[in-house]
Automatic annotation (TrEMBL):
This is Fibronectin-binding autotransporter adhesin ShdA. InterPro entries: Autotransporter_adhesion, Autotransporter_pectin_lyase_C, Autotrns_rpt, Pectin_lyase_fold/virulence. Residues 354-374 are annotated as: Disordered. Pfam families: PATR (PF12951). NCBIfam families: autotrns_rpt. It comes from the Bacteria. Keywords: Signal. The keyword Signal applies.
């Protein structure tokens, strides 16, 4: 099928099946394979069972029925769009070559039988997801991954803490997945800057590929956003980090070990954090609770609290490092009496110190194991 007009399209609604290739002695066609040529779009919407395979050399082929691709292998050198509003059967497997794109439209999943999904280096797999998308989206015998993964239409749910993060099962194959995508592209421009999504082979089951919500702090090459240490929360918003924030490999925009709090909202750290860079509370509130710690024992890192910003901790929380306060330093929350907030380092105070976060609760202690200036 050759469609030369890049703006043109042709829909084959007939059912395509194998034919006797001996009927025309002058034909070089095998009677059972389909080849797409030209820059236009070919749409297959019939109930097809041809067995010789589908080759896309140019333009776009749209599989608009669940059996559009027949039973043979799919060989994609251009653009293959699976848009059948159901589970497309491609039991011969699909190979997406370098420079080509295979796309799963919203509402479409892919079943490869015992065959393989192969995404070569330089290829693109584009999947459209929403909250109603089935899991897993792709099943088959095996998968060899490379190139780019693009996720469209997906959104991140609001979470109260990282303990609520969830994963989407993109693939579930019969054998371990080999290779990996080199990048993940996902539009998260309207989402909190401290959240990202990472594509990864499931460490507990290498036959599965997951899209997992996570902190931008821990982002990798296959995350939707670069790694950084900024947490921006708007007025009235709050988020708790229960996991441990440790040093990461830096990049051109972040040293991999510093935290910046922006926005009028509240960020709570309840893990025993080991990152060694500065903590800059520029706006809003940064609070330590539970096992909340900044820095390892003996650390010389700095916590800098800007004017109009608030930093503090509940009973048993600790800062290992120097604190410079130009805003408000709070020890113990409004529900506590007898709370001890420990600073293992010098304290330079040019702001306000308060016992209790919403009132001047008596009986709390700020313990400073260092020099006090202020």
């Amino acid at each position: 099928f050759t469609l030369s007009d890049p703006d043109g399209s042709f829909n084959v609604a007939a059912n395509l099946t194998d034919v006797d290739d001996t009927l025309d002695p002058n034909s070089t066609w095998d009677g059972k394979s389909l080849t797409k040529e030209g820059a236009g779009t070919l749409i297959l919407s019939g109930d097809n069972d041809y067995s010789g395979g589908t080759t896309i050399n140019e333009g776009t082929l749209v599989a608009a029925s669940t059996t559009a691709l027949g039973t043979g292998p799919g060989d994609n050198n251009a653009t293959l769009v699976l848009d059948a509003d159901g589970e497309v059967s491609a039991v011969g497997g699909i190979t997406t070559h370098s420079g080509a794109t295979t796309q799963l439209a919203l509402g479409t999943s892919l079943e490869l039988g015992d065959s393989a999904l192969i995404q070569e280096d330089g290829s693109t797999l584009n999947v459209e997801l929403n909250s109603d998308s089935v899991q897993p989206l792709i099943t088959g015998g095996s998968a060899t991954l490379g190139g780019d993964l693009v996720v469209s239409d997906a959104s991140l749910q609001a979470r109260a803490s990282d303990a609520e993060f969830q994963s989407f099962k993109l693939m579930d194959m019969d054998s371990d997945i080999s290779g990996d995508f080199t990048s993940l592209t996902m539009n998260l421009t309207d989402k909190p800057d401290y959240l990202t999504v990472t594509g990864t082979i499931n460490p507990e089951d290498a036959s599965e590929y997951l899209l997992t919500e996570g902190l931008s702090w821990n982002a990798t090459a296959t995350s939707a956003t670069p790694a950084h240490g900024t947490f921006t929360l708007g007025a009235g918003d709050s988020f708790e980090v229960t996991s441990v924030l440790g040093d990461k490999t830096g990049n051109g925009d972040w040293d991999g070990k510093s935290l910046t709090k922006l926005g009028a909202g509240k960020l709570t750290l309840s893990g025993a954090n080991t990152y060694s860079g500065d903590t800059n509370v520029q706006e809003g509130t940064l609070w330590l609770s539970g096992d909340g710690t900044i820095g390892e024992m003996g650390s010389q890192q700095a916590v800098n609290v800007a004017s109009d910003a608030t930093f503090g901790g509940s009973n048993g929380t600790t800062v290992n490092g120097k604190v410079t306060n130009e805003g408000t330093l709070v020890f113990g929350d409004s529900e506590e009496t007898g709370a001890i907030f420990t600073l293992n380092g010098d304290l330079i105070n040019m702001g306000t110190m308060t016992s209790g976060s919403s009132s001047s609760t008596p009986g709390n202690t700020l313990y400073v194991d260092g020099d006090y200036t202020g």
